[in-house]
Write a structure and sequence with these properties.
Elements (H helix, E strand, L loop, with lengths): L1 E4 L3 H13 L4 E4 L2 H10 L4 E5 L7 H8 L7 E5 L13 E4 L4 H11 L7
Parallel strand pairs: 1-2, 1-3, 3-4, 4-5
Length: about 120
Amino acid sequence: MILIVEDRDLQRRVWVDWLTHAGYVTRGVASGGEAIAAALDVVPQLAIIDLALPDMTGLELVEALRPLGDFPIVAIAGHEHGRLDHLGFAEVIRWPLNNAGMLAIADRHMPTVSGR
């Protein structure tokens, strides 16, 4: 399961729909609290998180997710976040990120999906 953490509803729904159509099992949530609850329910194989969330920073979310499993976490960051490679993200992507870019992230970090 890919966990998408993005507080902008339309963007989150588009990415979830795009990845689901591509064959990935995907769950989208709008906040850090929802992400933690989702990951406690089903540990994701990949988490893609926006670092600007309404209830906590993306860095706080990463600290909460790390003990749940050894899955890659990809950060989506604006330029204001500076360098983040030292925090152990599998990848740091800068905005803007289109649908093809989101699919490329999934393809790089997920086990092979049937038919892809």
